[in-house]
Amino acid sequence: MITVENLTKVYRTFTRREGIFGGLLDLLHRDYRETLAVDGVSFSVERGEIIGYIGSNGAGKSTTIKMLTGILRPTSGHVSINGLVPWKQRTAHVRNIGVLFGQRTQLFWDIAVIESFRLLRKMYDVHKVEFDGRLKEMTELLDLGPLLNKPTRKLSLGQRMRCDFAASLLHDPPVIFLDEPTIGLDVSAKFKVRDAIRHIALERGKTVLLTTHDLTDVEDLCQRIIIIDNGRIIFNGSIKGIKERMGKVRKALIDFHDTVSASSIMQSFDGSSVDAVQRAPNQVELTFATESISPSDLMRRILSDFNVQDFVLKGPELSDIVRKIYDGETAIASRDKAGE
Amino acid sequence: MEMVAYRLKPIMTLSGYPVILLANYFIFSAIFKSSPEIAGYSVNEAVTYMSVAWFLRALLKTDIDRLIGYRVRSGDIALDLIRPVYYPSLVFWQGLGRTIGRGVFVAAPLIVFGVLVLPLTRPNGLQDWLFFAMALTIGYMMAFCINLLVGIFSFFIEYNLGLSWTVDMTVRLLAGLLIPLDFFPKGFATVLMFMPFRYIYFVPIQIYLGRIPISQMASTFGVGLTWVAAMFLITHITYATGVRRLGIQGG
Known about the structure:
Low-confidence stretches of chain B: none
Number of domains of chain A: 2
Shape of chain B: globular
Number of strands of chain B: 2
Distance between the termini of chain A: 17 Å
Number of helices of chain A: 12
Helix content of chain A: 25-40%
Number of domains of chain B: 1
Strand order of the largest sheet of chain B: 1-2
Number of helices of chain B: 12
Strand content of chain A: 25-35%
CATH topology of the largest domain in chain A: Rossmann fold
CATH architecture of the largest domain in chain A: 3-Layer(aba) Sandwich
Mean pLDDT of chain B: 90
Radius of gyration of chain B: 19 Å
Strand content of chain B: under 5%
Structural class of chain A: alpha/beta
Mean pLDDT of chain A: 86
Largest sheet of chain B: 2 strands, antiparallel
Helix content of chain B: over 70%
Oligomer: heterodimer
Largest interface: A-B, 27 and 22 residues
Structural class of chain B: mainly alpha
Distance between the termini of chain B: 29 Å
Radius of gyration of chain A: 25 Å
Strand order of the largest sheet of chain A: 5-6-7-3-8-9
């Protein structure tokens, strides 16, 4: 469905001097510098997949999306989506894709949402009957009923996002790019948008490429994630896979019936790599490496040695793993795995 | 649509124009005190020229160049480029929409005002009205192309407001909005006759005033249409080049 090979984008930028005087100098002479925004990115996406395309700010996510939607020409590399090259056959290509830029609205600012939808219907030549059917489906799915007659400028962010999402689907595109579809949304709006994304991918077989900073979106929706850092793909695989590879450190939070000190627990695990931190007089948080002690062994020993009231075993969390990758703490970058 | 979105907008937009009409009336009445005829215009013809010029201005000021510039600077141009529509034609329809809005809410009241207050002349007969309408269409296309070109320049330079202002002022001078072109010194006026700008204001108004003989009508329209075709070609080439190197702003 989507094939990306060696995609590269070099931006030519100039370093601005400071202040008004510097600004004047910039008018006369500029030092240009080349920035590698996307550096030899390759991956492919199958029909019906929801792919999480994640990376820190400035990692190259948006640049990739812009090239895949055909609005930006890459410096080199090849992309094929539904058999078309986005920037070469842009007009044909954009009929096959739906795009949601979470930070922008594609609805016309001053007119009622339904009027925007009707204009989009004209632009995409969608048949009236088809359009009405889809509009009805979207209205139910995203709960748009009360919003359709309001102008875009009067919608809240969550309402606007739902309308924008519907707008990107009205021409029934097989491939959908969602660039931060949950940015700034409250929990309930987020869930509505997620449900809708899941619905269109699972029940309607749409292919979705999703970028987001909210990793709970990704855990909730995606089978596979691609992590990009400094323009390069550093991980491409299942969420389960990255947790198995990276999630070797787990945590357990334990409540005791009476006061138990962290040090006494440390003593009882002498030799194993277990670290205990006092959270409250009768609460201790343990951090342990699954390589040296399994979670079940750990709990068995705690339960036999101490008077435990309650405990929570925390799974490896995607956000922890990804944060470590962003911070460069973890050498996941077994680069041979990239693009697998 | 934008015109009806905010209730006060038409009124606010409208109120500047009558002032200009009156100012022109006073200026030209003063100029004509010294002589009953200048460059073949009577005072009423000169006042009519200026008034019709500003009626046209009310229709033609679509600001699509600023619209494109704004969308490039904000990065919203991305949303136009993901549509299966040739962008210049999208802009054309936006511009036409604005012209219709301005026609109803600005030009129409202004014309009523002008006809009631000023000594305006009218074309003789249906034929002249038809020729005037044809000339208007050519003028509209010409103005559209120039605006579009200035807009598309923002693909290259990002900030096009300065250019927009410069071009607007230049077109006012060269197209005959400031004063009738035949008021200029002969040499300058002749140069302007070989430029495309006069098709925006000067030519339609000459036809309105009956100052172009029927025998010259065909050649006038022929040259005008050729200019429009050339402008469309230039605009298309600029657009095709610009869109390839466009960088989309914002994340």
